[in-house]
Design brief:
Strand content: under 5%
Structural class: mainly alpha
Helix content: over 70%
Length: 204
Amino acid sequence: MSVMSTAMDHQRAERRAKERGATRASILDAARTVATREGARNLSLRGVAAEAGFAPAALYGYFRNKDELLVALAADDLSGVARAMRSAIHDADGQGSLAAASAVALAFLRNTETMAAASAALPAIAGDGEAERLFNGRLIAVLTALSEATGQKATDRTQQSDVVVLAAALTGLAMMGRAGRLDALGFSADELLARLEARFGQTV
């Protein structure tokens, strides 16, 4: 095979990869539109395909089923949350960094359904599917940002466990907030985030 032929094959492969990535992104954009309009739990491949302008069968080349699409959508959201958390940490400049980053995460969890829908879509036993691996990687990015917000990087299992506990606390606060239970109990999100800052800000 000539050098020119090899280069052309490489260019074609790159072009196909870019086209596939662009199509996948457009499917996720369509899924987000449908999820916003109809609720993430009511998402269907047929509805997403119609929104994206594809035949329903075309989506199966990118996502095996609705659950895989939901997990991919949540992973995409997690990437944005991690960036927003790091921006909040930077803006806080060491003063209340954990509360600032936690407020970003809490707002996301309270105002979107993708994480709740993805948690139901993820398998009970960890697998090795592409969507699940991507989700796990993006979740680790969020946990890393949360760790950085405490002022220390979690370098051992005890510190990492504390970060997971902190993330679980935020998830629980979001669930209670969405259900109106924080208001019913007489607590504000800001008050509780300040408590998390006091408890975890210097101890993680």
